[in-house]
Design a protein that fits this description.
Length: 280
C-alpha cells in the first residue's frame, strides 16, 4: 500500500530545493568565488574559444568528447562564461528535479549529486536520458557522442529484440556523427587520436576515481545490462552505465539517480505478490 504524501513536507522539500537552486545559480552568474569555476562545464564552453583537444582527463578545459557534442552546444558556448555556467548548472538542477522530485533536497546528501552539479559533467543528464530512453530511445545518442562506452546500455534493446528502438538510437547517433564529420573532419581525426591514446586511469588529476581499467569494467557492465534486460529489471541499467564509464569518478555515481524513478515505475506496475519489473 502506498503511503500518502504529507502536503506540508512535500511543499517544504520542494521550496527548499528551489531556494538552494536559485541561490547556487545566482552565485554562478555573479561569479562569486569559488563558484566561478566548474571544471567540466568550462571544458565544454572552451570548445568555442580555442583548441578543442589537448588536455588530459580531469584538467581545467579538458574536452574529451566527440566534435558532434561540441557543435551541438555551439549556440550556448558562444555566450559569456558566467551565462553558460549558469545555464549548464540549471540543466543539471532540472535533471535532479525531473528524476527525484520532492526527494531532490535530501538527495543533496548523496555527495556525487552535488559534486556533479558543481563540476558540470554530463552524468545527471545521462541519468535523465536513461529514464527517457525507455520510451524514446533517441536520448541514448547523448552517451554515444560523448563518453561512448556508456552506450552499452543499448544492449537492453538488443537482448529484448526491440530492434526499432535500437535502430532509432544508433541511427540518430550516426546522423549526428556524419553531419559533424562533414563540418570538421580534422576535429574527428584529432578526437580519434585522443581515444586511441587515452587511459581509464588518469594521471596527476584531482578527485577520487575507481582505479579499475575500462577493459575490466566494460564486460561486467555488458553482463549487468544483459541480465537487466533478461529479467526486466530496468533499474539495473544505470548500474551498467556507471560501470562502463571511461573513467569512473565519484560524481559518475550521480547516474544512479535514474534508479529511483525506474524503481518507482516498476513498483506501480507490478501486481501484488509478483516480482517488480519494468518492461519499457
Amino acid at each position: 500500500m502506498r503511503t500518502p504524501q504529507h502536503p506540508l513536507i512535500s511543499r517544504l522539500a520542494r521550496d527548499g530545493f528551489v531556494a538552494i537552486a536559485v541561490a547556487f545559480l545566482a552565485l554562478r552568474l555573479l561569479q562569486v568565488k569559488p563558484w566561478d569555476q566548474s571544471v567540466d562545464a568550462y571544458a565544454y564552453w572552451s570548445t568555442a574559444h580555442g583548441a578543442m583537444y589537448g588536455q588530459v582527463a580531469g584538467r581545467m578545459g579538458a574536452y574529451l568528447y566527440s566534435p558532434a557534442f561540441a557543435q551541438l552546444l555551439t549556440p550556448i558556448t558562444a555566450l559569456p562564461w558566467p551565462v553558460f555556467a549558469t545555464i549548464w548548472s540549471g540543466l543539471n538542477l532540472a535533471a535532479v528535479w525531473y528524476l527525484l522530485g520532492r526527494w531532490s533536497l535530501p538527495a543533496m546528501l548523496f555527495l556525487p549529486i552535488p559534486f556533479e552539479i558543481v563540476s558540470g559533467n554530463v552524468h545527471l543528464l545521462y541519468a535523465a536520458a536513461i529514464v527517457v530512453g525507455f520510451r524514446a530511445s533517441a536520448s541514448w545518442a547523448l552517451m554515444l557522442i560523448t563518453k561512448v562506452t556508456p552506450g552499452v546500455g543499448l544492449l537492453w534493446f538488443a537482448v529484448r529484440r526491440e530492434w526499432g528502438a535500437l535502430a532509432v538510437a544508433l541511427g540518430l547517433a550516426a546522423v549526428l556523427t556524419a553531419v559533424s564529420f562533414l563540418l570538421d573532419p580534422s576535429a574527428w581525426r584529432a578526437w580519434l587520436d585522443i581515444l586511441l591514446a587515452s587511459s581509464s586511469t588518469p594521471a596527476q588529476t584531482p578527485g577520487w576515481f575507481l582505479p579499475v581499467p575500462l577493459l575490466v569494467r566494460l564486460p561486467v557492465a555488458a553482463v549487468v545490462v544483459a541480465v537487466a534486460a533478461w529479467l526486466r529489471r530496468s533499474w539495473l541499467v544505470p548500474v551498467g552505465v556507471v560501470l562502463a564509464m571511461p573513467v569512473l569518478w565519484l560524481n559518475s555515481l550521480a547516474v544512479l539517480a535514474a534508479c529511483v524513478p525506474l524503481w518507482r515505475v516498476a513498483r506501480r506496475a507490478a501486481p501484488a505478490g509478483e516480482p517488480i519489473a519494468l518492461s519499457a
